[in-house]
Amino acid sequence: MSDKSAIPSRAEQPDLDWSQVRETVMMLHLAVAQIERTMGDGNDSVNTLTRSFTAMVGKSQSIHVAADNLPESREKDTILSNCQEIEASMAEAIMAFQFYDQLTQRLTHIGNSLDDLARLVADPQRLYNPYEWHGLQRAIRSKYTNEADRRMFDAILGGASIQEALALPSSTAEDGDRIELF
């Protein structure tokens, strides 16, 4: 067992060694750990869905090929119609996977940013240096891949509340409604 005097003070039992900076760093590390665990859980689910969709695509293609070889009939038309509906549903699911990929990219960025912030806050030499904070902010902003996220970042740093930043449009006329393919 370790010497109790070597254990830093905590908010639950503060003493002269208590540090709000250390508490902040611990909470930031907790947030990063929760993000990483959530992403891991999500990735497991998406991997299962990906395997299932891959199998369904193969089955749908087999059914479609088999139906194409049938003589003209109502049954053939019904089978082909259902294959087309399945294929359309799978295309929608693939788009949802693309949005999930964007979500995981954002969560990774958030986790990395929180980790960078924790390192800055934990370092007394950097903590009170405005240039370090500006550098961190510049580095975080440079990692955003879409304009809506950059606008939200700029709004928050410009003094907007979270609600005001969230109320900003998520796309502009130049962004359009395009979907990024990965």
Describe the structure.
- 73% of the residues lie in helices and 0% in strands.
- With 182 residues, the protein is mostly helical.
- Helix 1 packs antiparallel against helix 2 (74-122) and helix 2 (74-122) packs antiparallel against helix 4 (130-142).
- The radius of gyration is 25 Å and the shape is elongated.
- Mean pLDDT is 83; it is low at 173-182.
Helix/strand layout:
Elements: H1 20-68, H2 74-122, H3 124-127, H4 130-142, H5 147-157, H6 162-167
Helix pairs in contact: 1-2, 2-4
Helix content: over 70%
The termini sit apart by: 51 Å
Give the biggest beta sheet.
none
Instruction: List unreliable stretches of 5+ residues.
Output: 173-182
**Shape verdict:** elongated
Instruction: Evaluate the radius of gyration.
Output: 25 Å
Give a count of the beta strands, DSSP E runs of length 2 or more. Answer: 0
Counted by DSSP, the helix tally is 6
Assess the beta-strand content as a share of residues.
under 5%
Average pLDDT works out at 83
Order of helices and strands: HHHHHH
Secondary-structure-derived class: mainly alpha
Descriptive terms for the model:
182 residues; mainly alpha; 6 helices; elongated
What's a quick, concise take on this entry?
The protein has 6 helices and no strands. It has helices at about 20-70, 75-120, 125, 130-140, 145-155, 160-165.
